[in-house]
TrEMBL record:
One of the GO biological process terms: methylation
Superkingdom field: Bacteria
Residue span, Methyltransferase domain: 54-144
CDD domains, per the entry: AdoMet_MTases
Alphabetized InterPro entries for the sequence: Methyltransf_25, SAM-dependent_MTases_sf
GO molecular function (one): methyltransferase activity
Name the record gives this protein: Class I SAM-dependent DNA methyltransferase
Keyword vocabulary terms for this entry: Methyltransferase, Transferase
Amino acid sequence: MIESSSLDTTRAAYDAVATLYAEMFRDSVEGHPLDSALVAAFAEFVRAAGGGPVADLGCGPGGVTARLASLGVTAFGVDASSAMIELARQEYPDLRFDEGSMLALDIADGALGGVLAWYSIIHTSPEDLPVIFAEFARVLAPGGHLLVGVFATDADSPHLAEPFDHKVSLAYRLSIDHVADLASKAGLTEVGRLRRAPGENERFQHGRLLARKPTEP
């Protein structure tokens, strides 16, 4: 497994707050209608393309993984935090949860119908993002879909990534154009994108990108 100093730091930080985090954000889509609709659309795309398994990468305590399963796809979770994985297994014993790194996924080439990366790349050093998107593309089957959720930079920001003081570990707001460019350079085709304004008690805009792996090279 490829490691990085930022991954080590993030893993340790989430291990330390896993129980509290799970109490506060068991399902981070809950209460956000646009987000829940987009996750449901993602699941529908996966089903329409053949219904291959979906990996919820950076699954945390597993709530969104369970949401995916309830939407009719075969979903499993992967997270770098062993404490998060343990909580997820306890809460959702019928689902699969594995400890792992997005920098080097223990998943076969072309094995997945879908990849969900819901706020799981926000702690990644910007220089490591191309590696992670290459991994997303590698594990997707032709016709498979990727859905990414991030904190977004402001529309007029000249920066591709802007660090901010996340409560758990250093994180980055990302340009939606940059996320789309990373997906494109990894060989994925954009299906759509969404920018959501901050909700109550939220500081930043949110960005979502839906992309697809072409069926032909």
